[in-house]
Amino acid sequence: MSDPAAETPSGQGASQEKTGEVFFYHMTRSPLEATLPTLLQKSLEAGWKICVRGTDEKRIDWLDERLWTTSDDGFLPHGRDGGPHDDDQPVLLTTKTAISNQADALISVDGAAVAAVEMTRLTRVSILFDGNDPDAVAHARTQWKDVVAAGCTAKYWSQESGRWEMKASA
């Protein structure tokens, strides 16, 4: 897998500037539980705090369990929202629209909403969607239009060749 989390407009590695870029990851070969840990690790290596926003508490519970056992170190440091140390979490899992860990990056899963202000305020916004689910693909297309309408750059990443490649930008 190439390094999509570190890609910038100039191709020179991760940027610490707020860029208004939204990356769309069309998952067709790797499921969420394989793609998300890779993006989280790259984001942590860039020095970012990350909010992972989903739409269903049970699905967030499921992701929480997977993240404890996915990295070579045995886990990715993270927490669930609603705890006493939300601000300190390097990765915070939530279904809420408010970001409570002062995140630099937002990763939307399962069609979770992303506000226009988040697109421009955060260093990176990523939208992961299941390419094998026609409803998820249709929702991602709507989100793409919202990103462009907000004046932000939308970048489409595909893994149809077997590795992540940027296929489009608007």
Folded structure, characterized:
With 170 residues, the protein is an alpha/beta fold. Helices cover 28% and strands 24% of the residues. The protein has helices spanning 32-45, 57-67, 116-121, 134-149; strands spanning 21-27, 50-53, 79-80, 91-94, 105-109, 124-130, 153-158, 165-169. Strands 3-4-2-5-6-1-7-8 form an eight-stranded mixed beta sheet, with helices on both faces. It is globular.
Shape: globular
The helicity comes to 25-40%
End-to-end Cα distance, whole Å, is 23 Å
Helix-strand sequence:
EHEHEEEHEHEE
Strand arrangement, major sheet: 3-4-2-5-6-1-7-8
Low-confidence stretches: 6-18
Radius of gyration: 15 Å
Task: Describe the sheet with the most strands.
Answer: 8 strands, mixed
Given the helix and strand composition, which structural class is it? alpha/beta
| Strand percent estimate | 15-25%
Count of distinct strands: 8
- Tally of alpha and pi helices: 4
Chain-averaged pLDDT: 86
Key phrases:
170 residues, alpha/beta, 4 helices, 8 strands, 28% helix
Put the structure in a nutshell.
With 170 residues, the protein is of the alpha/beta class. Helix content is 28%, strand content 24%.
SSE arrangement:
Blueprint: E1 21-27, H1 32-45, E2 50-53, H2 57-67, E3 79-80, E4 91-94, E5 105-109, H3 116-121, E6 124-130, H4 134-149, E7 153-158, E8 165-169
